[in-house]
Amino acid sequence: MHLIEHRLSDHRAGRKRLRRLRQRSAVAIILSVREGELHILMIKRAEREGDPWSGHMAFPGGRMEPDDAHGYAVAHRETEEEIGVHLDDCARCIGRLSDITAGPRGVLGMFISPFVFCLEKPVEFSPNYEVAEVVWVPLEFLMDSSKRETMVWKRRGLSMELPCYIYKGRRIWGLSLMMLDELMDLVEGRNPQRKLWRR
C-alpha cells in the first residue's frame, strides 16, 4: 500500500480540457489489504433496461449533480448512495488517476475522474438498487498477464477485439480496465499509457 501511495503522490494525472463545459462524473477506487493481500473493490451493476452499463463490473460512482462542488464530492456521495459506505469515516484519499472520456454525451462528451482511496477500517456494505453485488478483486490477479483475455465488443454493426479479465465469472473490461491499467502501471513503476488495447 505504501508503494502505491508514494507513486500516486508523484503521479501527474491527466485532466481533460474544457472541464467546465463537459458533463462530469467520478468514481472511487477503494483499496484494502485483506488476508495479507491487496484487493480492489468493484461493483457489479444491476441489470437495468436502458442503462448502457447494465450488468458491468465498475467502481462506485456516477454523474455530477448541481449540488456537487467537484469530482471528489461526487465520488464520496455516489459511494455512500450505491454501497452505503461513508468514505470520510473509514478511508482516506491517496491520489487520483487520469480523466477518461466515456463516449459521446452531448457535444463535448462526458468524462470520469477516478479517485483512489485506502480503506482503513472494516466496513459493511448496503448496496442500493443500482448494485447487484460488491466484489473484492485481488490486485495480484490483475497483474498476472496470463489471466488477461480478449473479448469481441459489438455495437451498431461494428466489432472490436478488446482486452478483459474474467474474475470468478465476472468480466472486467472497458473504462474500468483502463483505470486499472493506469493503476497497475504505477505499481509496476511504468509510465502509464492508458491504452485500452495494449498488453
Question: Describe it for me?
Answer:
With 199 residues, the chain is of the alpha+beta class. It has one domain (2-144): Nucleoside Triphosphate Pyrophosphohydrolase, CATH 3.90.79.10. Helix content is 22%, strand content 37%. Strands 1, 2, 3, 4, 5, 6, 7 and 8 form an eight-stranded mixed beta sheet that branches. A three-stranded antiparallel beta sheet has the order 9-10-11. A hairpin with a 2-residue loop joins strand 1 and strand 2. GO terms for molecular function: coenzyme A diphosphatase activity. Pfam families: NUDIX (PF00293). This is CoA pyrophosphatase. It comes from Sediminihaliea albiluteola. Residues 22-162 form the Nudix hydrolase domain.
Task: Write a short abstract of this structure.
This is CoA pyrophosphatase. One of its GO terms (molecular function) is coenzyme A diphosphatase activity. It contains 5 helices and 11 strands; from the N terminus they run H-E-E-E-E-H-H-E-E-E-E-H-E-E-E-H.
**Order of helices and strands, N to C?**
HEEEEHHEEEEHEEEH
CATH architectural name: Alpha-Beta Complex
> Number of helical segments?
5
Shape label: globular
Rg calc: 16 Å
The largest sheet, given as strand count, sense and whether it forms a barrel, is: 8 strands, mixed
Q: Supply the helix-strand structural class.
A: alpha+beta
Q: How many domains would you count in the coordinates?
A: 1
Distance between the termini: 24 Å
Query: Mean of the pLDDT scores?
Result: 89
- Identify low-pLDDT runs: none
User: Which fold name fills CATH's third level, the topology?
Assistant: Nucleoside Triphosphate Pyrophosphohydrolase
CATH class: Alpha Beta
User: How much of the polypeptide forms β-strand, as a percent range?
Assistant: 35-45%
- List how many beta strands DSSP finds: 11
